[in-house]
Amino acid sequence: xxxxxxxxxxxxxxxxxxxxxxxxxxxxxxxxxxxxxxxxxxxxxxxxxxxxxxxxxxxxxxxxxxxxxxxxxxxxxxxxxxxxxxxxxxxxxxxxxxxxxxxxxxxxxxxxxxxxxxxxxxxxxxxxxxxxxxxxxxxxxxxxxxxxxxxxxxxxxxxxx
Length: 161
What we know:
- By secondary structure, the protein is of the alpha/beta class.
- It has a single domain, classed as P-loop containing nucleotide triphosphate hydrolases (Rossmann fold, 3-Layer(aba) Sandwich).
- It has 6 helices and 5 strands, in the order E-H-E-H-H-E-H-E-H-H-E.
- Helix 3 (51-74) packs parallel to helix 4 (88-101).
- The radius of gyration is 15 Å and the shape is globular.
- GO terms for molecular function: ATP binding.
- It holds the Pfam family AAA_33.
């Protein structure tokens, strides 16, 4: 029997540092990094103007990537997914991938106060001006209203960072 790859994914409010940590963990563990932001920007440029647009296109992307991620994990490839697991519904998709692949996993929860997230968003707007229209304090609070911290009863191996 071959070893399964490990799936690492993230939960944390907007601006918590999920993408930065995902890149670092992927580099350290020699894992394949899949970034939702990169995929969405490449496949749907200038198409996300609202939270509804994001939800619709994110679902479409995950429906395409699911079988490929499962195959990679079954082949023994470690995968770090910089895709949010910020709601129970988003985490359910990861649960389905984990169950189908039969692989070990880690849900990394970046538990940051709102003030830190907002400060990091401000810095990100300076470094990535193309995100300035979306990475605002107003957007932060609108998206944070949907945030659900992971709970033990969801059955994930959770690491709090």
